[in-house]
Design a protein that fits this description.
By secondary structure, the protein is mainly beta. The strands form five sheets. Strands 1, 2, 3, 7, 10, 13, 14, 15, 17, 20, 24 and 27 form a twelve-stranded mixed sheet that branches. Strands 19, 21, 22, 23 and 25 form a five-stranded antiparallel sheet that branches. It has three helices and 27 strands. The longest helix is centred in the first third of the chain and has 4 residues. It folds into two domains: 174 residues, Jelly Rolls (Sandwich), CATH 2.60.120.260; 166 residues, Jelly Rolls, CATH 2.60.120. Bound molecules: 2-acetamido-2-deoxy-beta-D-glucopyranose (4 copies). One 2-acetamido-2-deoxy-beta-D-glucopyranose binds next to loops.
């Protein structure tokens, strides 16, 4: 279920248009790098949704060829082109002008669009530097796949490489780099990176990214689920002073409660073996974002337990603050299980059902020094 969320997104990324020639500078004033892979020519363009400037990829790789995706897949979509790598086992993009020791969100997107007219979908690996990042499994022509990693960079450049594993031609649609403050996502450090599994904007039918999220994370809409009732506010939801995730108010303003307060809210995530070491299951990191969106009368109480596989995940019952986000997360990856079942259960004293506003799931991958691979 979770991995499907990543696919259900209408993305405002690729697409032609523009016409202003940009001087070749890899990093914009926000420190962002935004590349439309396979975009011909030298002119970039401003993306209609994010208002961010996307540049062609010629300055980042000298391998591969530009291909246009098939017209039937372009219709109504902002995807137009890809760069395809029919030759070579490993083809890389080099991202420069990064800051040594800084934490970055790096995101690659893959929207096949039947660019080769063959209607067969490849499976290939993405590496960051010398490290396996994830396996990209294209399951349909119009299903974009997102690969995202949060990692500390130990160099001033980093390579993103597409590795042909004998199951079709690797290709890429876009590549984006967003700097993060080092205090964010403390589970990502010099020796461990976080690979995105799911990031859900719960109780909303809109996906959120930049500028609503200054870090340009993509929070994919998860409007409802079995037994859930949406809840929302138009008021701003604040983060705690010690918050280390900075979920934007646009995301935490919506959430769900359970329709029946005596029924928990459930989430299930199956552990998937790491594609690099087929039988090894990676550790998982979860962030659950909860905020009270209703001003409760004094005789009302919303109080609940968060349980993981039937055991209390936090030590105590959870009481939320009005318009203030509480984040529950594990500091160390959890390797304990092949299936993670979260349940949010009202206490017997509670007069109101549990609430949840957003969720992130990552797998943890070791990083033996993600840095420049120097050679080009
Ligand atoms: C972006 O907006 C411009 C102007 O409104 C429009 O002409 C263009 O088609 C849009 N591009 C995409 C990819 O939607
Ligand atoms: C790719 O996805 C298909 C469809 O979900 C699945 O059957 C297949 O096992 C996947 N392959 C790999 C290598 O993950
Ligand atoms: C709420 O759930 C409880 C326990 O499953 C059930 O006994 C009760 O009938 C439900 N109430 C409603 C209104 O559905
Ligand atoms: C429920 O309320 C009773 C009476 O105020 C109290 O003793 C008990 O500790 C409460 N239970 C929880 C789980 O807070």
């Amino acid at each position: 279920m979770a991995s499907r969320w990543l696919l259900l997104l209408l993305l405002g990324v690729a697409g032609g248009g523009g016409g202003v020639l940009q001087v070749h500078a890899q990093v914009d004033s926000l420190g962002f790098i935004s590349i439309d892979c396979g975009l011909p020519g030298e002119a970039g363009y401003m993306d209609n949704i994010t208002k961010l400037w996307y540049t062609p990829d010629a300055g980042y790789t000298d391998a591969g060829t530009n291909r246009n995706i098939s017209p039937e897949y372009q219709a109504g979509k902002s995807w137009r082109n890809v760069r395809s790598f029919p030759a070579g086992a490993r083809n890389c993009y080099t991202l420069r002008s990064l800051v040594f020791g800084l934490k970055y969100l790096i995101r690659a997107m893959f929207m096949h669009g039947n660019y080769d007219g063959l209607k067969t979908w490849p499976i290939f690996d993405v590496h960051i530097g010398v490290n396996y990042w994830q396996t990209v499994n294209i399951t349909d022509g119009d299903m974009p796949v997102i690969a995202e990693i949060i990692t500390v960079i130990s160099g001033e450049s980093v390579q993103v490489c597409l590795v042909n594993t004998g199951s079709g031609t690797p290709f890429i649609s876009s590549l984006e780099v967003r700097p993060l403050k080092n205090k964010l996502y403390p589970q990502s450090d010099a020796s461990q990176a976080l690979v995105l599994v799911a990031r859900a904007n719960i109780g909303s039918d809109k996906s959120i990214r930049y500028p609503d999220d200054p870090h340009d994370r993509i929070w994919i809409e998860l409007p409802t689920g079995y037994g859930w009732a949406p809840i929302s506010t138009t008021k701003k939801v604040q983060n705690d002073v010690n918050d280390v995730f900075e979920a934007p108010s646009a995301v935490t303003q919506t959430g769900v409660t359970s329709i029946n307060s005596s029924r928990p809210i459930f989430f299930t995530q199956d552990a998937q073996p790491n594609g690099n070491a087929k039988d090894l299951v990676p550790g998982y990191v979860f962030m659950m974002y909860m905020a009270e969106l209703q001003l409760l009368p004094s005789n009302a109480l919303r109080q609940f337990y968060v349980k993981l596989n039937g055991k209390l995940w936090n030590a105590k019952t959870l009481g939320l603050k009005y318009l203030k986000t509480t984040v529950m997360y594990n500091e160390k990856p959890d390797y304990a299980s092949h299936q993670y079942i979260f349940s949010l259960e009202a206490t017997t004293n509670s007069t109101l059902p549990p609430i949840v506003n957003a969720l992130e799931i990552f797998s943890a991958v070791p990083t033996a020094g993600i840095s420049t691979a120097a050679q080009e």
